Amino acid sequence: MQSLSQFLASDVSSASLQEVLLVTTQTCIEISSALKKGSLAGILGMAGNENVQGEEQKKLDVISNNMLKGALLASPAIRAIASEEEDDIVPANTDGEYLIAFDPLDGSSNIDINSMVGTIFSIYRQVGSEPATEADFLQPGKNQVAAGYVLYGPSTMLVFTTGHGVNMFTLDVEQGEFILTRENVKVDPETQEFAINMSNQRFWSDAMQNYVNDLVAGKDGSRGKNFNMRWVAAMVGDVHRILCRGGIFIYPWDKKDPNKPGKLRLMYEANPMGMLLEQAGGKAFTHTERILDIQPEGIHQRVAVVLGAANEVDKCLSY
Ligand code: AFP
């Protein structure tokens, strides 16, 4: 049995990067405990609501953000953070070497139904003598030095890569540490499972409608095989399923708001998941380009996402 700290000692040469990963994942263990208490802890509900004691309740995504922000800003290895819950980046230590972008609680609408949620993170190395600015974060995803997520499901799992493949760890709740449970995860290039929010079908491009129609037609259609569909409504859960048993995940552009290129965020959803998928032998694209090649224009930028089994991503893009 290999613990996360033992694994990091052999996988990551930089002590500062080890520290960033340990601080991030240790805080996720604390978030996991907060989530497990659920409404017993009196912390469920909308920010601004009052609990039975008349105290203001905070949403768990706000609580998770504050926990990660507090822990990371206190780490000397951190130069700055960017979060889904923060309008602007937050500079930390000018001497710090690492930038981290995160979604503290992806899929947070699943909280109210006691379903899967997760924390997603993306780490870049960037040094400089001035305090960090947003421009420091605007690097393509191929520059990430580490990326991953912690999934809060029936068990709490950490999945990450530092560019040497994808490894999965399971939280040993008694010991309070992550233990390596699956090494060098690979995604089969072929699949018969897809994930897309079908309720948006009428808003997709013609090409996307044709592609999904062909999946749904199954054995009787041009694909000649039946497809199964799954939708967790938390990207972290859908990507975890793909890493475990294959599949394709799509959040396409749609014409509900034609000026928005997609729903998902480049810096703390598409890029880290794109790096994981590529490290597992899969692919991650928008409708037209490799996600990790995109030059970001803002920390909260949105993109269309097509990721998963390599041959199925190619097939989807060929429409
Ligand atoms: P929230 O974190 O706001 O719940 O959004 C989750 C998410 O960005 C992503 O994780 C899901 O894949 C997607 O939204 C689900 O979107 P739908 O509302 O279309 O199901």
From TrEMBL:
Pathway: Carbohydrate biosynthesis. InterPro entries: FBPase_C_dom, FBPase_class-1, FBPase_N, FBPtase. GO terms for molecular function: fructose 1,6-bisphosphate 1-phosphatase activity; magnesium ion binding. Its cofactor is Mg(2+). Mg(2+) 1 binds at E84, D103, L105. NCBIfam families: PRK09293.1-3, PRK09293.1-4. This is Fructose-1,6-bisphosphatase class 1. It comes from Marinomonas fungiae.
